[in-house]
Amino acid sequence: MEKKLKVGVLGATGMVGQRFITLLADHPWYEVTTLAASPRSAGKTYEEAVGDRWKMTTPMPEKVKNMIVHNVNEVEAVASTVDFVFSAVDMSKDEIKAIEEAYAKTETPVVSNNSAHRWTPDVPMVVPEINPEHYEVIKYQKERLGTKRGFVAVKPNCSIQSYAPVLTAWKEFEPTEVVATTYQAISGAGKTFKDWPEMEGNIIPFIGGEEEKSEQEPLRLWGKIEDGVIKKATSPIITTQCIRVPVLDGHTAAVFVKFAKKPTKEQLIEKLRNFSGLPQKLELPSAPKQFIQYLEEDNRPQVSLDVNFENGMGISVGRLREDTVYDYKFVGLSHNTLRGAAGGAVLSAELLTAQGYITAK
């Protein structure tokens, strides 16, 4: 790319906003030129606004420290400085829907990490390796919004990344029933052990809204565009439990699957290892070369060994074996703030840029 696109980060002071900033610090296509957050942060330098709440393990990039934070609610002012924005705002769902559409109506594409628009019928919710064709619904969304280049695109929940890609790789064997229990890291709640000490040595068997997302969102990924909207798939039937565990980064899933066409274990492993998509074909900057790795050892995948596979953008799978009730069971692992959050959104933006949906203003 001859000239880098100018990017804004909405909700720049929160954990996902911070992750966006670290990922974009040396990005070959994008340059962060504008940071926006709540009115209480507006007018301060980014370093002042974040204060002692920097949650990343790497230092705050020098180039953003002295940037003045904008008020995220001053939509026209922020939008006028950028080609597109990443959204990680912390508001109610209705407020998020309204502000993301407001940015889109200024002809500014919005790539969102938030859940607010995941079920808006003409908003694509995409894992770039799984359903890039859903971006075709953007033309219908633009008609509704009355825009020429502005739109909203989202990525799905972090919890499904450890098993939805696996089930997609096995699509030809027709999974019919899935039982998944996810063991979810505390960074998924925007926390570290420093600010959530009661999670040390603890497990919480409830994460609000997570089970519904984990059961329904994969079906939307596998849906089809009909009459200008995305209609979700009707199978497989998925039931889940979601548990918060004392791990900083990395969501693990223990999954049971029943198939209409029963494959061999060797066929399943071969499909995982060979599964790739458009990001790999296009060699997008954030795309993992190997999307899914299969680990033969009985004690893998492990968070401490495998969460950063392919810079946190790959999925790790192990313990695939036949089951006495279902056909097969396995364990999956994904990085929830990289593949599952900001990294997945950056990869989505790269694909949208490669396909001409995001351009310089």
From TrEMBL:
SUPFAM superfamilies: Glyceraldehyde-3-phosphate dehydrogenase-like, C-terminal domain, NAD(P)-binding Rossmann-fold domains. Keywords: NADP, Oxidoreductase. Residues 6-138 form the Semialdehyde dehydrogenase NAD-binding domain. Coiled coil: none annotated. Gene3D superfamilies: Dihydrodipicolinate Reductase, domain 2, NAD(P)-binding Rossmann-like Domain. PANTHER family: ASPARTATE-SEMIALDEHYDE DEHYDROGENASE. This is Aspartate-semialdehyde dehydrogenase. It comes from Eubacterium album. The gene is asd.
